[in-house]
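Weekly structure sync, notes
Attendees: PL, DS, HV (note-taker this week)

Item 1: 3-isopropylmalate dehydrogenase
DS walked through the input record. Source organism listed as Leifsonia kafniensis. Sequence as pasted into the shared doc:
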Amino acid sequence: SRRIKLALIPGDGIGPEVVSEAVKVLDAVVRGEDVVIEKTHFSLGAARFLETGDVLTDDDLAAISSHDVILLGAVGGVPGDPRLANANIERGLLLKLRFSLDHYVNLRPSVLFPGVPSPLAAPGDVDFVVVREGTEGPYVGNGGAIRQGTPHEVANEVSVNTAFGVERVVRYAFEAARARSRKKLTLVHKTNVLVFSGSLWQRTVTAVAAEYPEIAVDYLHVDAATIFLVTNPGRFDVIVTDNLFGDILTDLAAAISGGIGLAASGNINPDGRFPSMFEPVHGSAPDIAGMQLADPTAAILSVSLLLDHLGLTDAAARVRDAVTADIAARSESTAAGASRTTANIGDAIVARLGS
Ligand code: NAD
Ligand code: IPM
Ligand code: MN
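Item 1 (cont.): predicted structure, written out as tokens:
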């Protein structure tokens, strides 16, 4: 049988709560398959930093890299915790993993499942995917401050966009569009202001588009894209965009398609040189941590993306279908005043997995 080495990084806050449910679903869905999942648990995040002073050591990174795939919950301590003032767990752990493991595609699908209330009056047919660049842009840490703390402080944060980095993610986005039914790709940027990176992104999309005559290509400035995400999200199919715009757009995308508790993502290294990492889009939610109030669906849908990535497409579809069925039944259960714990939702989704 096939052996899959899975690195688990539950992390902080609600991370461990939602990862427990995701693992429950994963274990249940592979039971019928000829697959053995070997899990290694990595205790990383704010709690680990407070205990040992380490965020992600070279040994941690090497150990994680030796796995086939990674499932992460969320990282980030309680805001304002003075002991974390100088520890940037998000940069030192999450971004370090994305950069070191060359996760140049951050894949964030948005689907409005039947029965999910959207905050939009007329959401239409919401089914798009954001292909967010994952290793460049303003996230690279190419910055610095001078005269810090004085009235003459200058703080720079330089967005890095390489021809290599832009082309590979744009190519991935075109392939994604080709595999989908609407066959449409929208570049989102801010070319009217960010002229150098904007020009590189625009020229790259135009050049690659020539190889994909069946894909309709358009462009939106990021500010206008936020309008259309709210007024007409059905116009989108594949959105390709830079790291920071993609971060912001995908929280909005989550909100219009049923909430952050449903939004899944994959940090993908399409070359297969490094393990890809799957995680909910949401963070550690310190406001509800430890209370069994978190919705584990985003983490469970991330398991579906993980299974797809491993080529276990039947298992992936079974997870997606079980989630779809659970979500469809939610409006009834909430109407009846029933509220479910994080574990209740995980159990209900396991129960809906067809065999
Ligand atoms: P957040 O996503 O943690 O929370 C935003 C709001 O959404 C909160 O009200 C929270 O209760 C709610 N929420 C989030 N997930 C939910 C779920 N599964 N079910 C129900 N409600 C949910 O964002 P934030 O408050 O900006 O960040 C908190 C911490 O998490 C910060 O330290 C931040 O840096 C970190 N963070 C980490 C990741 C990650 O690990 N991938 C992502 C985003 C934020
Ligand atoms: C996300 C998060 C991260 C990001 C933070 C925690 C570094 O917001 O995964 O969307 O900005 O990418
Ligand atoms: Mn984000």
